[in-house]
Amino acid sequence: MTPPNSTLRILEKANLAREIDAFLIDRRARALSPHTIKYYDEKLALFRAYLQAQGIKAVESITAPIVRRNDEERYGEYRTKRLVLGISDELPEGCGDERIDRVRMVSEWCRNRGV
Fold first, then answer.
1. C-alpha distances in angstroms, 36 versus 17, 32, 96?
2. What is the domain range of residue 36?
3. Can you tell me the distance from the alpha carbon of 106 to that of 88, in angstroms, rounded to the nearest whole number?
4. CB contact set of 56 (below 8 Å; sequence gap of 6+)
5. Measured in Å, how far apart are the chain's first and last C-alpha atoms?
6. Same domain, 43 and 94
């Protein structure tokens, strides 16, 4: 019997592990540098360990309060919020990219609610 290929092994993993592996595969396919891939892999391994310690196994279970607690424990601040809002301020107006529009919309929502 032939060993399963990497795609089949990914499908056998829990949701969170599968999503992380898919993200890393996508980044490799985009020809990002090995250093960047290693950085992502290391950071995601830390985040995954934190989530598992919280009993979270599915991406759908990750909430803003969970991300905030992780950030505050690791960095002493709600770093993700600061980074997202900072990115939003730097995005070009009217570029027509749906992803940029979504980031801008989330940033405005956070600002309007004092998050």
1. 19, 6, 27
2. 1-62
3. 9
4. 16, 62, 66
5. 54
6. no
Type of residue at 58: A
Q: d(Cα 24, Cα 40) in Å, to the nearest integer?
A: 8
pLDDT, position 115: 55
Tokens 């600061």, located at residue:
82
DSSP assignment letter at 54: T
Q: Do 114 and 69 belong to one domain?
A: yes
pLDDT recorded at residue 10? 47
**Same domain, yes or no: 3 and 14:** yes
The tokens of 97 are what? 């990219």
What was the pLDDT predicted at 97?
58
**Per-residue pLDDT tens digits for 22-71:** 889 988 998 989 999 999 899 889 888 888 888 888 877 888 888 888 88
Of residues 2 and 92, more confidently modeled: 92
